[in-house]
Structures are given as structure tokens and as C-alpha cells.
From TrEMBL:
Organism, scientific name: Cryptolaemus montrouzieri
GO CC term (a single one): membrane
Main location: membrane
Pfam families named among the record's database cross-references: MFS_1 (PF07690)
Gene3D superfamilies per the UniProt record, alphabetical: MFS general substrate transporter like domains (1.20.1250.20)
Keywords recorded for this protein, A-Z: Membrane, Transmembrane, Transmembrane helix, Transport
Subcellular location: Membrane
Designated name of the protein: Major facilitator superfamily (MFS) profile domain-containing protein
Amino acid sequence: MVVPIIPDHLFTIELNLKEQTHSDFASSSSIQREYEGIDKENGLLGALLASKAFVQLLFTPIIGYWITRVGCSLPMLIGSCNMLLSSLLFAYGKSYRLLIIARALHGSSSAAISISGMSLLAKHVPSELRPKLMPLSFGGIALGVLVGYPFGGAAYQHFGKETTFILISLMISFNIGLQLNLMNKFNIDRIEQDSDDLKVLDLLKDRKTMIATCAIGVSTTTMAVLEPCIPIWLLGHFYPPPPRWLLGAVFIPDSIGYFLGSHFGGFIPIDNWRIALIVMIVGGLSSCSVPLVDSVSQLSLPHFGIGLSVGVIDAILVPYLATLMESKRSTKYGSVYTLQQMAVSLAYCLGPLIGGEAVYLIGFTWLMKIVGLMNVAFCPLLVELEEVKTGNKDGMVSSINKSSTLDTYQSLEEDYPKNSE
């Protein structure tokens, strides 16, 4: 919801400062009144949006180490409380400085929630079911984006910034209550002491782990560049400029694409590395075609392709990272998902910063072409994820001993009934 709201809010503040001596302005959006030369303002907006990813990048290794030591529940709870504080700051913050602080809190919260959530799923979902069940969690992300962008744009236009973020704060408060209730009922943080504890530095030396992680980061970069640049590009290159609500609704196609890709990517009966290669090509070509559209409606197809690409990559490679950890005789997943979140955070940190400046230096068209070609150029590396012929038909996902799956089921059966009595 930040993406469709904050650009207009920032430019409203800036133009009000410039035109404070005029009291008879029209009530239309300030961005729509003066959009000429607006590309020069991408840097300020890019810095604000990137601050979240920068803080998330800094906190990610700390959260990963913490989860390895204390489990997942406490970091997730504290991350949710930070998210609540961030939402309240977005609601009542008026200055650029307060918005930066709110965005930074958002980043630390995302680090805690993402790593603890993925680790919790990897711990309790059997390996053969991960490609089908773990992507369901990505559906929450897709649903949030799908609803958040248009709802944020429409609510901002009709009710204002404060009311919109207060509603989000109420939803976060309800989620915190659910977490406290579950923590009292179930012991979901049983830490296995006999499992190897692989550090992030150890994983950096593993070729397949690095390729899978970098693929997630590269595909995410496309979306990270689009988010701050598309609203400004629309306002500066289409006449009349689109209304506020459309600045959020323009992201609906990629949200639908991500939702479909993340839910059904694990069910495609093709080797997973081949699927990843195909969708990265689709994402690259879609990125190159974004600046070629002549109307807002024509953005739907390339946006859908980009969202589908990112969704399928997440659905395939995030569960694969957990399988790689088990192949190294470790069931402590904090390290590998720390690495994965660092790749995503780096994409969302550098994407808005570099993208915002690149639009001004080389133009939006060349920026999207470069991002698209980067996706296509990475594709040959995905061949390295092809599993050596061992009679396994599951492509790059190596087979895990059936006993580990049985142990997982038994541990769940032993844990939950005892704690629910």
C-alpha cells in the first residue's frame, strides 16, 4: 500500500512548500497538476522505498542467527509489533524524515517475519510436499499486493493517508493476537540439537545454493525497479495523467501473475530447473516490452508476465533451498533463508536507488531493457541446478530419506496432541 500512496504524498508536500502563498488551488492531485519533468524526482522516492530493503538487508543476518538460537515464534512476534509501529508512523508521519523511519521499521519487521515464517514452514512440512504446500504462503504475499495496491490507491483518494494506514494497523493487531494465542497452545519451536548448524558463509561456497539464491534476487529486481518508476512514468508520459486509484490498480496484473505462479508453479510436470529457465526468459522479455506500450491498459500483459515469472521462481527455488539444507544433514533453515532474504533485500535496496537515478540518466526505456536482458543472461546458470542422473525423476530436487519424512510426521503427531490437551 505504500507504493501508490507515498509518491503523491511526497510531491504534495513538496509542491505545497513551493506554492504555500497560493490559497486558491484546485482540489485535484498535485502530481496531476505538475508532472512535467517529474522524472527528476525518482531519486527522492527511490531512496525512501529503498530504505526498507537496506534496513532489511542489515537485519537479515542478525535475525537468521537469532532464529537458530531461540526458534521462530519470538522473532515473528517482535517483527509483527514493529510492523504495527511502522504502520502508525505512516499514518501520522508528515515529514520525509518520519516516513524514512517508518520505512526502516518496515524493513526490520520484514526480515523477522519472512525468515521465521519460511523456517517454520520448512521445519514442519515434509520435503516431498514443500513444492506444493510452501508456495501457499506466497499466496499471502500475492493477495496482499493484489488487494493492497488498488485498495491503497482508492482508500487514499477517498479517505486520506491516515485512515488507510490505521485500517492496516488494526489488521496487524489482530494478527499479533492470533500469534499469542498459538504460542500459548503449541510448542512450535522445538530446536533439534543434533542437527548441523551451517553458517551463511558456508552456504556462500555452495554453487547450487548461490545460483538458486541469485536467481530469486535477479527476478525480484525487475519488480523492485518497476515499483517506484512506473507511477512516475505514467504521470509524466500519458495525457491526461491517470487518477490516483489507477496508480495502484496498474499493479493488479503482476499481482495476479504472482498469485498464479506461486500457487501452481510446483505442480507443473517438468524438471524444475527447466521451468525456472523458461519463466526467467518470460520475465526478461516482459520487462523489455513495458516501455513499448501506448496506453495504461496495454501494461497488463507485460506486468502479468513479470509477476508470473517472480511467482514461479519463488515457488520452485524457495522449497529447493530447504531441500539443499537437508542434503547437507541440517534441519536448521535460518541460515539458508537468511541468504535468500538478503538476495531479495538487495534487489529491493538497489532496484529503487539505481532505477530512480537511471531513469534520469538513460531513460525509462533503456532501464527496463537492461533489467530484462539481465534476466535472460542469467538463464544459462540455471542448467547447473539439473540433478545428476540417479534415477530421480524430480529434476533438481534431490531425494531425501523417507525416514526423515516419517520422523517429521511423528514429531508433529507427538507435539501437537500433547500441547493441546
